[in-house]
Amino acid sequence: MLSLQLFCANPKPTFRSPSFEPLFNPKSLKPSKLYQKSKPSPIYSVLQWNRTPELAGETPRVVVITSGKGGVGKTTTTANVGLSLARLGFSVVAIDADVGLRNLDLLLGLENRVNYTVVEVLNGDCRLDQALVRDKRWSNFELLCISKPRSKLPIGFGGKALVWLVDALKAREEGSPDFILIDCPAGIDAGFITAITPANEAVLVTTPDITSLRDADRVTGLLECDGIRDIKMIVNRVRTDMIKGEDMMSVLDVQEMLGLALLGVIPEDSEVIRSTNRGYPLVLNKPPTLAGLAFEQAAWRLVEQDSMKAVMVEEEPKKRGFFSFFGG
């Protein structure tokens, strides 16, 4: 993973390792644009590939990605985090638990390859390995859909059936996956209860608006009541310009309201719509987008069960008119 190191440069900078190369020449930058101190010193950054993430916890790790409110980016998060984990070398099985309204196959570009679902597996019409759809780009990533679009589940399907499914994935001959990601449906009805039953950790996706935060707070309580204590959140669709203008809550405000560890912050990006329509996740874009890089960093933290710290975005001073001199 990329790690950022800062070096205070002298006129003749030195490096600890000959493999480090500066991304640009600090002499070409004007110090006044970097810092406003009386005696500025040029600072440049060096990016390096220094290590691979170390998988923490017992495998497989069953993670449910939920939010409560619809449209906040659960499926987008599942697709991008899942493929990021696969690119890091971990085996991943993504389960689309949204019955009748599945969309994960569309975001991954696998909609034409889903021939069997979990319903056919439970009915004995096919084997589990036949229902798993292996991604051609990354062979260690597989998709499993609960049901076909516009279909209904059998009455007996519930949390126990999904637990059996997870146990079957653990007992596969080719080995247990490192991660099992469950894309949870919106709401807190039976579909939500079914999706969270086999999970031992959760990723809560929310946006910085009051409706999403209220639903997220409610879902956090339900997850804790179900025994899931390892809950981290991803704040999606963040716009720093609106935060500076006091038109959007900051990530610090969101963290104070929910009281959860922060897994990642995803900026607003127009490439999300383009990648969704193409069935090509953001993390595969070249050159990478800001949102794609943020998803990769969130996947890295998920592997090591780490979290990040939110930083305060300074608010822009309000514009003062001519009459402000007279107290207006």
Descriptive report:
Keywords: ATP-binding, Nucleotide-binding. Pfam families: CbiA. GO terms for molecular function: ATP binding; ATP hydrolysis activity. Belongs to the ParA family. MinD subfamily. With 328 residues, the protein is of the alpha/beta class. The protein has a single domain (63-304), classed as Rossmann fold. It is 31% helix and 18% strand. It is built from 12 helices and 10 strands. It has helices spanning 31-34, 74-87, 104-108, 118-123, 128-131, 159-170, 190-196, 210-225, 240-244, 251-258, 271-278, 290-303; strands spanning 2-8, 43-49, 61-66, 92-96, 133-134, 141-145, 179-183, 201-206, 230-238, 261-267. The strands form 2 sheets. The protein has an 8-stranded mixed sheet, sandwiched between helices. Strands 1-2 form a two-stranded antiparallel ribbon. Strand 5 and strand 6 (141-145) form a beta hairpin. Helix 2 (74-87) crosses helix 12 (290-303). The protein is globular. Mean pLDDT is 83; it is low at 1-48 and 322-328.
